Amino acid sequence: MISALFLLVIVSTALLFGNEFSVGFFVHPSLTRADHRAFLPAIQVFARLFGKVMPVWMPLTLALHLFLLWLTWRWPASHTLFLISAVTLWIIIIVFSLVGPVPINDQVKAWELAHLPEDWEAKRRRWDVQNAARVVLIGLAFIALVLSFRTLPLHG
Q: Could you please report the per-residue DSSP string of the chain?
């Protein structure tokens, strides 16, 4: 049962990491190379979609991490340390998202192509940097989770 739960959390975290990585390093850079008139409507579609999905997906992933930690608390120290690291990183990721990229995404969703704010390009660049930092944090959380799973006692 615990192994299956671990695999579910690993898959969820891997999908989240892949999603954020692809948006941050492939989709968004491709769109920003285009004229902003073509870029903005497309990025608004993503901002609206992820504005609905991520507030559920990220906390659910954290909750699953916490549940795993609770179930395996008395296991070997290395396992627990890696899992505590993953949980801590997820808390940081969620707080960072709420104070960094999410407010920018909320602004982007409301922008009108004919009336873009003067600093719209600076805000999008700031989002790029913050999202890159978030991708790194999610990647580190994923590595910690996988290392925790690898130290899972065979009788677990």
A: -HHHHHHHHHHHHHHHHHHHHHIIIIIHHHHHTS-HHHHHHHHHHHHHHHHHHHHHHHHHHHHHHHHHHHHTTTS-HHHHHHHHHHHHHHHHHHHHHHHTHHHHHHHHHH--GGG--TTHHHHHHHHHHHHHHHHHHHHHHHHHHHHHHHT--TT-
φ, ψ for residue 73 (rounded to 5)? Answer: -55, -40
What percent of the chain stands above pLDDT 70?
A: 95
Global pTM reads 0.90
Beta-carbon-side half-sphere exposure of residue 106 (alpha carbons within 13 Å): 9
Residues 6+ apart with CB under 8 A from 41: 113
